[in-house]
Amino acid sequence: MSKQMPRRAVLKGAAGMGGLLAAGFATTRVASAAEGGDSVPTMLNLAATAEAFAVTHVYSALTRRTFNLNPAEELQLKIILDAELQHLNLIQANGGQPLTLNFFTPNGLYNSRRRFAEVTANVETTCTGAYLAATRRFADLGNPRIAATMAQLAANEAQHIATARELLNVVPSDNAWLPPLFFNVSDAGPVLAPFFNGGEGFSGPVAFPGRDAVLAVLGDVRAIVYPTYINTF
Fold first, then answer.
1. Reported pTM
2. What are the φ and ψ backbone dihedral angles of 50, each rounded to 5 degrees?
């Protein structure tokens, strides 16, 4: 039977990610008292940046890693890669633009199965929290159908957390609720900033591979496509 991961380990991660996520919780407490919220362009641009990073990250794991994955695990990563590309396509089709296409990663990230899985779980936890914040904000703005699409994205990112945890040989989830880490999407910015800007313990940059390169790696593997609640924002 798979072991449960200690709760504090979820926030520990690698290369300072525990501290970054803790900072995210602190930001949430401050932001929850603030009035107003993110604009639509702010939410979409940050989401596009995070999705472009996710594509680059999973593509790098499939093409650059030095650790072993069994065929089922590699297939799951390909399905995640296609899902992240679909997310990026949707967001860009509705006006979101990545703030950068060059990304940084913790040193040695693709040389260790555990390090890759821990960092991936932490990043996906951050993205899940950001999409939950987007769900709240779009509902606030009177766009419940778009809010539902943001909830779809949050649910899918949570599945990616489960995959990363399974690579660590722990249960896919021990939470009754998706963690609402952020009040606004922009609150996730400081948590993800080292992946966008670099910093101590990070190396890079690595460029977004482009859709053609991603499709070449995917071959005939595709994540199942379900309609979004709204196709244009």
1. 0.85
2. -65, -40
